[in-house]
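Weekly puzzle thread! Below is a chain. First person to post its structure in token form gets bragging rights.
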Amino acid sequence: MTTIRLTMAQALLRFLDNQYVSIDGVETKFIKGVMGIFGHGNVTGIGEALERSAGDLVYMQGKNEQGMVHAAAAFAKQSNRKQIFACTSSIGPGALNMITAAATATVNRIPVLLLPGDNFASRQPDPVLQQLEVASDYTISANEPFKAVSKYWDRIVRPEQLMTAASNAIRILLDPAETGAVTLALPQDVQAEAYDYPSTFFERKVHFIDRRPASADAVLRAAQLIKNKKKPLIIAGGGVLYAEAMKELGAFAETFGIPVSETQAGKSSLPWNHPLNVGAIGVTGTLAANKLASEADLIIGVGTRYSDFTTSSKSAFGNPDVQFVNLNVSGFDSSKLNGAAVIADAKEGLKALHEALEQIHYRSKHTPAAIKALKQEWDSEVDRLYGAEHEAGFAQTRALGVIQETIDPSSVVVCAAGSLPGDLHRLWRPAEPKTYHMEYGFSCMGYEIAGAFGVALAEPAREVYAIVGDGSYLMLHSELVTSLQEGRKITILLFDNHGFQCIHNLQRGHGSDGFGNEFRYRSQETGRLSGSYMLIDFAAHARSLGAKAYKADNAEQLKEALQLAKQETVTTLIEIPVVPGTNTGGYESWWNVGVPEVSVSDKVARAGKEMNAKIQTVTLR
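Winning reply:
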């Protein structure tokens, strides 16, 4: 047997550099490169290997460990999970900084490979700098918390263990039903230890991802359930886009006359102006979709995990006879809401179900005129909100309207947290697939700018816009610098509404007078954060980092700034001050949040009683 003597870190990189995926006959190099921040837990191990033995892997320098993992996840998401970056960190705080982003990837079913440094396996110099010592269990390190947020976790304490660990990591990363964050903890001494690896370990490996077909029995059961239903509604989730099943979804809806609603992850599955696209569903949904959901006697979920925002905390479906057909590659997701499970790739499953329903000549009882009327009603509401003026200043929905009408339809908008995801889900009008990139599985503040950078890496020919609130910007903007370093332009549209106004709205909507959510100075009179708003010059801050920057206080200035930003060749920020509370409201939707049953405030106590009364009306599924 031919062997090659390498350090464990060198062997890991050589292995990763030779992994390919084949989907529908198209081959793609799976690992694009490695993003990293070096420290004493990885710089002399995997750092040396990246410097001298990286092969074709690209190295990118992150600025914050959480940010670089968000960027890697966004890259994988925008690439339909066909290509990823690995991320390396030092031990201790460097590793722990990746955990939030690891959870974000796992919740969203996005593959990322995490390579945190770890304590010395030999224990000779213990305790080393940044080592976490647990007296009751000395095997525990700062990397144990990754177990809770990883789909696969391993610690390589001998160099030869790499072979099984790396193979298992790739297996999970490529599994469309089980993918998420994969963590290989790398003790810093083992990274540098050499071993005679068999040369076969480094051979070019093509992993064939076969589309999972639906079983004939499952399709038959689903068709039998559907055939007597009059008012079905499709919920299109992210699985539609990952499976590239947009054409099949459109054909299915058109043939059987079934309206289509979209989750945050599924938005842009159909063009916004498709006659059967009734828009966003759930808590952040459109009036059209939520009315149809309330009346539906059947929900056909395609590639959705049915989050509480999608189902309005399971209150969206008001018909007592409603049933569910769940088409999903994941058996876990397909079993939800006591639905009839069709476990399959979205494209294959839609084809099979289409054929079965054609054979029984099924058609829904929806009329095109009724759906058209609902769409026209909602389109008029969007137009109203896009044109809304406010006496106190620039309304948030008006700003979004200007952005919508000014940027190219092929541009990608990226968002994640605050009130903006609700507005975008309801109002944004994508004309092309994959132009709406929302991280709303975890709604992780700080994803926006790093995510936009990741999208720009995946789609260099498109304009990419990070739509971000001031709260998220302050929380994590570090990969703005990386975008400059890498020459990957993004445009940051920063909505300044003086704080965490989304949660401020939620708070006040349930009896509070407002507490701790706005960016105000501490008042000498009240002792609380109730003084005047803090004045932060975000445009100046962006310029100090090397970006171009503009400020737009009204529609005319914003349109001009967007046009100027498009001409810039480097990352650009547009600061957009907006009036707090000028976001959209709910449209026949409800969200279950814990409201105190006992409070010294009568308003809170009343809100608690109202919440509990509503909970009693929701059917448990």
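Puzzle host: Confirmed. Bonus trivia for everyone else. The chain has 24 helices and 23 strands.
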